[in-house]
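Researcher: Next sequence.
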Amino acid sequence: MTESKTLPRPVPARAFRAGFTMLELVAVIGVIAIMSAIVVGGYGGILKALARENGFDTLRRGVNLARQQACVDGQVTWIWVTGINSFVLVRKGGKISDVGANSQGSRDWYYGTKGDRKLENAGNGKARWVYDRFADLTEYQISVPDISASDVKAMFDGMKGSLVFDMSKGTIANMIVPPQYDGDLDAWVFGVDKTLLGNDDFAPGAEYGWVTLPEQSLPKGYAFAESYTDDGKYDADKAPRVKFLPDGTTSGGEFIIFETDTGKGKKLEVRPNGSLVGPTDVEVTE
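Model: Next structure:
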């Protein structure tokens, strides 16, 4: 008996042509490129919008915090633009009654009684000594009977290196010797780094304050319109600032942040009663 065999079917010639032609590949790549451009462009727009909102929220929180600090501490508090895209919170510390150039090159510094000297030659000639005889450094007048002397010293030592603000000049300086009350002078005395100060910085009669919130920055590519010059530099004279009084009221003011490449911005208005209005969309033109 003869076995029957099943022969394989012949494969059609067109089966060997499976795949894309060059023209089809070019068309597919073109479609992918167009879709990618749309997606990336949309994503970039989303990121810009988020950055703008985050920057505005950071500013709004800073303004609210300045008002809260003024009310809680019972001291004048500023929100102050310190760069093209940065700001700080400044709490009033006092009013300068006198300054010392420290021509001797040194000054003995003490905590407590004069016999309890802890820092010799404080400042080493680098300090500009600031005297405040108006007794408004009340938060540092420790009168609690059970606080230890070491705790008081630790508190003052912790202030070394903090920032001090000249409210009349808009100048920031590092504190190199913490404040202490000098009974003989009947004044609070502290030393700020004078190496980068002008002769009229921290001058008698000027109000000074402590920077209570470290410098905050807007997202990259955003700036404060008022203090931003045509060549992209910071203009301290035009930098916006708003002062809050202990009752939460203010003289009013506004802040405008904008995208430096497009000019699109948002405005935050601070009303005299301390309330905020915004964001309001604005266009910043040079």
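Model: The first helix runs from residue 22 to 73. The chain has two domains: 49-75+218-286, 86-215.
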